[in-house]
Design a protein that fits this description.
221 residues, mainly beta, 5-stranded mixed β-sheet, 4-stranded antiparallel β-sheet, 53% strand, elongated
Length: 221
Amino acid sequence: MLESKYIYRGLASVALSASQLSASLTFEKAVVEDTIAPGVKSYPFEFAFENTGEATVEISEIKTTCGCTTAKLDKMSYAPGESGVITGTFSVGSRQGMQEKKVRLMTKDLAQPEIQLALKLDIPQLVTMKPGLLLWRVGTEPEAKTLTVSPNGDLGAKIVSIVCESPDFAVESLPMAEDSNEYEVVVAPLKTEASSRGLIKVTVAVADAEPKTIYAHALIR
């Protein structure tokens, strides 16, 4: 009986020692900040890290806060002293201005169950559209409304085309002044008896970059 008590205490001591082993993923940086050049379609990023603890870290999942952002690891287990890199891509699309996205790393380490990383990306605003939404109520007069489109002159942005993909709206683009690259876009619904939606597609170009399409919205509801 005495012998088994010593064995039990020995096992408890081993268990206690194992629980005291710390696991820790240390990242070179937790935030990626950058300005994306005009015309770039996707932005690759990475977060490098090292397991600076005394125990193996098991990663259970990587999550991102937006479908425009992907992130992955080559493997999900890292021994003490082992390094790794989270690689990912942010899809620019028609986005403009400051973009903040999160990458969340879930681990099986009770002391560090979740690690939050961040992207802070500034996408130069190639064109300003005011307002971004033109709204008509169902059954009201289908009067024309105006959208002002102003390209970013500091970036040398120029309007290539302005079209509406919906046949329910008439669109006319008028330069605001002679030799001006700013436009007043006159939009009028053909009828307002039923709900309808149209995208006003403004294609803008900057030297040495592929044209980019920015959207405004016409809505009957």
